[in-house]
Batch of 2 targets.
Target 1
Amino acid sequence: MEIQGLRRRPRRLMLVPCAMQGHINPMIQLGTILHSKGCFSSITVAHTQLNSPSDHTSSHPYFIFQPLLSSDDSSLSSGTDFIDQLSNLNSNCEAPLQELLIQIVKNLEQHEDLPCVIYDPLMYYVKSVADHLKLPSIMFRTSCVTNMLSWYVCPRIKKQGYTPFRDFKSLELVPGLDPLRFKDLPILPSIFENLDAYLQLVTSVQNIGTSSAIIFNSMDCLEQSSLARLQQECQIPIFAIGPMHKLAPEATSISLHEEDRSCITWLDKQATNSVIYVSLGSIASVNEKEIAEMAWGLANSNQPFLWVIRPGLVCGSESKDPLFLPDDFKQTVGERGCIVKWAPQKQVLAHKAVGGFWSHCGWNSTVESISVGVPVICKPFFGDQQINTRYISHVWRVGIELENDFEREDVERAIRRLMVENEGEEMRQRAADLKLKTEFCIQKGSSSYNSLNDLVELIKSV
Ligand code: UDX
């Protein structure tokens, strides 16, 4: 689409991800997609904690990796003090980013436009820096559209007198967010108490300000109605251009853990659709009792399984080998189970042997499994994961929720429902249909394809 009268000068792009796996992957995919559109003279990734940037330069030749802080100053992990950590990280990064952007602007070639900044709203300091320097900025939210919509609806619910302790385990539908129930909201009672402060801080709802647009790794075929409603709430354009890993298949992930590719050789030996792949993402953690229940549920299900036990998955296990498990468990499962510390997930999910995914339902895992037609056992932990679970199980109907605490009988039952019974076969069929719809979204003239072209035009024009 050519828009008459727009400037067509090269421009540098600055990407500012939040240094968590589920946030870095889609940001790198977005950078790769925009690079393929050929409108940037260079792309800089201003980052905090990554593996050594030199590790990535060879696999990402279009990107310049620019650390903002030493890794000691930039740690971010899940836990009760997450908001404090985030707030420190934001204050620590502000001056280095400002300095970097000032340098870039100073060294601009005569024919170049001012750089455009695309940032993760968890890195909310970026917007104040961009505003201060009068640079165009665009927000990239790495969770689903419905999650952001819920942050618009929550203040209204609060005004209507709902109180967190009474209502937040309730199965009652949230007015205006059907089919979400109160228990699906990504909000803790403590946050609800201080909703205004929280909204101001990290949700980006009140921080849209002078941003030029919001980007999502989502699709019309998944969230058409939430997209339309969010567009009514926001004054700026919204672009849903997913599934990004399909639009940028060559974008190798920047993995914060080393991928163990031996599991692909193990998968090659398994029957079609027989394996349940188990991964709870990069942040969620379980205790020792829960991991034992997971282990025995998997063992008793009699299905082959590929299980990611990353360092830190079991609370307090960072410093010891995470692949500890009792000997009698190992003897029971033998070759039927493959356990790794980190897997090449997209390749695993696309493998013909994988017939189901037990997931925490982070948004990336959700999009990745939907786009290859693999049905899901959902065990959400926090934030948007409960919303994704509700959509997987009740809207797209390609998965089931493991509702109770971890009990081996429930785990075994859920695996058998998904992998063996007719119910699972029906979900697999619906997942195959949804996969086709996601493929259609990126075809020429379809929603994600058009949205991407519109985004490129906007970036050229702002
Ligand atoms: C976080 C939040 O927890 C999630 O709720 C939010 O939607 C995104 O940010 P995370 O917990 O890491 O994400 O989950 P997810 O969004 O699923 O992202 C994990 C990424 O790591 C995926 O891209 C997945 O492919 C990758 N991964 C995971 C691997 O490559 N190998 C693994 O073994 C596990």
Target 2
Amino acid sequence: MQQTLIELLDARVSAALAAVGCEGAPAVIAPAGRPEFGDYQANGVMGAAKARKMNPRQLASEVLEKLDLAGIASKVEIAGPGFINITLAPEFLAALAHEAMADAKLGVPQPVSQRVVVDYSSPNLAKEMHVGHLRSTIIGDALARVLRFLGHEVIAQNHVGDWGTQFGMLTAYLIEAEQGGEATLALNDLEDFYRRAKQRFDADEAFATHSREYVVKLQGGDAQVNALWQKFLDVSLHHCEAVYEKLGVGLTRADVRGESAYNDDLPVVVADLKAKGLAVESEGAQVVFLEEFSNKEGEAQAYIVQKQDGGYLYATTDLAAVRYRAATLKADRALYVVDARQGLHFQQMFTVSRKAGYAPQGMQLEHVGFGVMLGEDGKPFKTRTGGTVKLAELLEEAEHRAFALVSEKNANMPESERRAIAAAVGIGAVKYADLSKNRNSDYVFSWDSMLAFEGNTAPYLQYAYTRIAGVFRRVEHFDAAAPIVLEEEAERQLALALVRFSEALHSVARETMPHFLCAYLYELSGQFMRFYEACPVLKSEGALRDSRLRLCRLTADTLKTGLGLLGIGVLEAM
Ligand code: ARG
């Protein structure tokens, strides 16, 4: 199919509206609110009638007369003040399910391809990755996967924090550690390394001076200091990569383009903003005043691009980066998967980039914000002693807990198998718990709820997949090309749910909301369970059995593909 069901119905209802003189009136197609309203409803007639001062029910019946859904719908009705309720024909859904099974992309239509930059993960390399970077990493990864699946060209950008005054301090401390012969050891724990460097910096004036000199040397391109800095970054990136590997996130060194990459561009950007009359001097700093963001007193907000002392800021670097993403990477769309608390920064940065012409009008700029991960006490997630939780340790604990659960259920399974299941379930649970929530809200990190085999969790969906895989282990032969026949309502509902995979993916890509895909997969599993209870599969015979097995097959494929797009693995047995 070239369109999603919603797009198809939209085109048909819009054509009918046009045929009765309501050219351009939106059809407003939505999934039906209740089963008795059919599968979809067209809600646009009321609006069209109002704009034309017509009776909505009268208009609805005129639209209905022109509405051509032959071969698509089995029932079309007017309801309430002028809703049009549409029930799709079983033969039509069967044909779509059949098509989906023959297609590597499961029948998901490919939109016009865009080049999309996704800025995600982007930790600060001075310290170890913490839980705040977990959200960016997995949300960004899921979006990148979905966009790629839809045929877009994704360019991942890991905008790591690898520049700034801390790096003077860290390289100065690295020299000391090396002289003491314990640099490698000390770098095993970056958190600790940073803490000790900071202690030295605060306690020892000579060391602090030294650190500041190093910053200058680093910026001046001094070879020795640069080599040390590189060494530090390398170790820090190794720590990140261990986390990416555990998470199954495909970020590599090639995706790293850190703040330091834009260094030479910063004076160029500021000079350009000045030349364009956008940046002006204010109290010694270079500032862009933004009327769009004026405060209560009506004063334009100041967006600082160069400090009094001549230093550049996070903001300046982001302006250089957006220019690069537009001019060099030629992105049609750029996503910034970053903590919601940076929302104002991005809105202002986007505004400046438009004004300065760094991002052309046609390029979409979106801040994909997310809330904070909370502990079960409802406060920001911390260790028991109030420290930041290291991601590597959190993920280890996830596997550990999943291993205990799996061992409880399958005491006789070989340990290596239990470990493999624990990895998929433990990591899957952590990722899914995050991805299944609306990213804009804060969420409570709870081991018990994410590892539950009931409810909207990874283990539940992984288990649903495994159950279907189990069905196929009991099948010796079936005709994988047999026609799909939808006689029971539960069969028709399952086919409808399967065909709606494309809508879920399209809305994830459009609205950058991975939880739409989670909600879809959960709904699909529910629909499958209802089907499986109502319609015997292995006990049925002949063509009916083949048809039902094919529905099972497509469900398994859709679950596997969908979870895969969230970066979550499935298991043939668990
Ligand atoms: N390093 C920043 C942080 O840890 C995130 C960078 C996000 N990306 C960007 N282009 N600003 O908060």
